[in-house]
Amino acid sequence: MKTAAPETLRLRLQVGGEVQGVGFRPFVYRLALDLGLAGWVVNTAGGVVIEVEGGRERLADFETRLQSQPPKNARIEQFQRREIPPVGATGFVIGQSQGGEVTTRIGIDTALCPDCLRELFDPTDRRYLYPLITCTHCGPRYTITRQIPYDRANTSMASFPLCHACAAEYTDPLDRRFHAEPVACPECGPMARLLDETGQPLPGDCFVEAAGLLRQGKIVAVKGLGGFHLLVDALNPEAVARLRARKQREAKPLAVMGLNLPSLRRWLNVDPASQTLLEGVERPIVVVDPAKQEPWMEQVSPGGVGIGALLPYTPIHFLLFHALAGEPSGWDWLERPCEILLVATSANPGGEPLVTGNAEALARLGGIADATLLHDRDIVIRADDSVVLGGRAPVFLRRARGFVPRPVARLEGGSDGVAFGGDLKNTLAFSRGGEIFLSQHIGDLDNGATVAFAEESLTHLLHVLDLHPQWVACDLHPDFRSTRLAEVFAARHGLPLIRVQHHHAHIAAVMAERGLQGPVLGVALDGFGWGEDDQPWGGELLRVDGDGSMRRVGHLRPVALPGGDRAAKEPWRMVVAWLVQALGDGALPELKRRFANRPLLEPLVQRLLAGKETATTTSCGRLFDAAAALILGDVDNRYEGQAPMLLEGAARHGVAGDFPPCDITCGVLDPTPLLLGVLRGQQGGLGVADAAVGFHAGLAKGISQWVLQAAKPENVTDVILGGGCWNNRLLTDAVRMQLELHGLSVTNASIIPGGDGGISAGQVWIAVMKQ
C-alpha cells in the first residue's frame, strides 16, 4: 500500500513594522532553506512580502519561528497570512524591491554591533581599523535615507560603488552584510580625515593625532551618525571652560562619554534601568547621579543636577578611545575601565541646528574646534543624541537619534495629518495609517536656522512616510512660529487647521502613548502655554474625554508676571510678584534685603501695588522659579529650567519639615501659605536643603489634595501627569505615591517627551479624536 504524499500548501505573508534594513530578508531566506521550503521574499513600500511553499508542518514551524525569532533590530507589528494555490516552486530566492503605497518605515540608527567591533580591531580582517565599518545589524539607517524602500540607491551611499569583495558580501544571502546598504571597506567606501582649524589636512594617523589634541586640552569636532559632536577632555576643567566660552554655553549641562560601563561607574551611579538604556542599540544620553561630587563635575554640570552619560556608538568613537588608550592590541581593553572621559556635546553653535555637512562644519565650527575629524558619508537628515532621564522609570527629555522614526502611539481610525507642536523643544508629529510618528528633536524656534530645519524635517518625513495630510494641527498661541508655519502649510495645501490648547495637548500626548480613552484628570504643569482666556497658563487641572474634548477643572492661583518673558529668565521677579500679592508693601523690606543689587526692584514693587502689571500667569514653572530665588538666592535662568533644577538638586540633601499647606478653594490651588512658610522658616534659620525639600513636599501634598478633591465629583480614577515640571523626580514620585495610596491610577509620559517635545503628538491625538 502506497503512503500518501505530504500535502503541499503555499502561503502569502505580509509583514509590517521595522523590517527593512535589519537583516529580515536574509533571516527569512535562511529559515526557508533550513526547513526545505520554496518561494521568495521581497521588500515593498508596505514592508516585507513572503510567498512560501511546502508541507503543512514545516510551514507552521516557519510561521512560528518567523514571529518568535526575528533579527534583534526587527519589530514585527503587522502580520497578515493567507493561503494561495501552490505553484510547484523549487528553491527560495530574495527578489527585487517593489514600490507602491508606503506603509512601512526606515529602521533606526543603531550602535556598532559586537561582530563589527571585533572585526574593527582584528588585524587579519580586511576592515581592520576602518572607521565606517557596518553590517546589517548596525550603523546608520534613518539619517542616510532619502526615501523608501530602504535600498542603497535611496541612501547617501549611492555614490560609493561596491568593490568586488563588498559586492560579494552584499549579494550573498548567507552573509551578515547581505543588502547592508551602508556596507563599504577601505577599497570602495568613504574615508575619515583630520583637518586643522583652517581646513588643511593634518599629517599622520587621524585618530592618533586627534587623541593627542584631546590630551592637550584641545577641542575636536567629530562627525557621527546624525551630526557633529564637540569633544574635549572632561577631566580638564580649563579645557571644558574653553569649550563653554567658545560655544557660548555658559551653564547648561554637558554630556560625557566613557569607553564602557565600568569607566562610567567609576564616577556615576548607574542603576539597572539606566544600564539597559546605555548599552542598548539606540545609545541615548542617560542622565544619572554622580557617585560622589568630584571637582570636574561642577564645570560639566554646574549645581550637581545630574550628569548625562553615553557610551561610544560609532566605529570612529571606538577608534578614538583606542588611540587615547595607547593603541592596545586585542580586545580585552574594551572591557577594562578606562581613565579617559570625554565631553561629547552637540556641535550646534548659538543654539542653532546641529552641524551635519563637512563644509558646514569648517564654516560654522572654525572658531570653536581646534581640529575637525570628518568622513565622506553624507548625513541626509540631522538627528541629535536622544536624552533620557534615568532611574526606575526612565522618561525622555529629547527623542531623536536611535528612536526616530519608530512610531510612538497607535490610533483607532482617523485620517492622516500633521501637527506642528510648539515653539520650545519643537517636534513635528504625523498621523499615518493609525500610527503616530514623532520627528526627531528640532529645537527652539527662536532663530531662522531652526525654523528652516523644521521645514526641512517636515518635507523629509512627508516624503519618507509617503504621507498626504488631510488636516493640520497647531498650538493655540497666535504668535508662535510653529503656528505660523502651520497656517502657511494649511493655506498652501487647502487643508483645515485645528488649533489645540497647549496643556490639553500635554495630557493628550500621554493618553496617546498609553492608549487611554478617557475620561482622565490631567495635571499639566509647565512654564508657559497660551490659555483659552488669552492668558498664560501653566498650572492646570483638566478633564479630558475620549472624544478629544477638554474642560478646565482647576488651576494655580494667578499671579502677576512682571516683565513678561523676562520673568522666565530672572526668577527674582516672581518672588516679588508672590510676596507683594501676599504681603502688599510689607514685603518691601524683605525683598530689599534679598535683592538689593536689582535696581528695578522698588519700581517693580510700586507697579505691582498700583496694579500696573496686568499680565498674570498660573504657571507652575514660574512658581518653581520663585521658590528657587527665595531659597537659593538671586539666581538667574541662564537656560530653561535652570533654577528649578538647582532647587531639586539642593532638595536631595535636605530633611522635610512641616510648612503650612497650600490652600484649595473652588478648584484654585494657592501656594501662598507654603511660600510664606518657607520664608518664615528661613528667617528662623532653616537651611537651604531643608527649605528646598520642604517646598517640594508641601507642593506635592497640595497638588495631591487638589486632584483628590476633583476626582470624586468628576467620577474619574485615571490621572495623567503632563508637562515639563514633571521631569522633577522628587515632585513626581511624591505625588504619584500619595494619589496611588488613595486608589487612583497615575500615568505620565515615557517614550514621548513629557515636556514641549511631546505636544505635537498630543495635537495629533486630539485632531483624530475630534473627527
Summarize the structure.
This protein has 771 residues and is an alpha/beta fold. It has 24 helices and 31 strands. It is globular and about 90 Å long.
Radius of gyration from CA coordinates: 28 Å
Taken from the alpha-carbon principal axes, the silhouette is globular
Number of strands: 31
Major sheet size, sense and barrel closure: 11 strands, mixed
CATH topology of the domain at 8-94: Alpha-Beta Plaits
Number of helices: 24
Uncertain residue segments: none
Helix and strand content put the structural class at: alpha/beta
Q: Give the strand content.
A: 15-25%
Arithmetic mean pLDDT: 94
The helix fraction, in percent, is 25-40%
CATH hierarchy, class of the domain at 8-94: Alpha Beta
Oligomeric state of the chains in view: single chain
Distance between the termini: 67 Å
Return the CATH architecture of the domain at 8-94: 2-Layer Sandwich
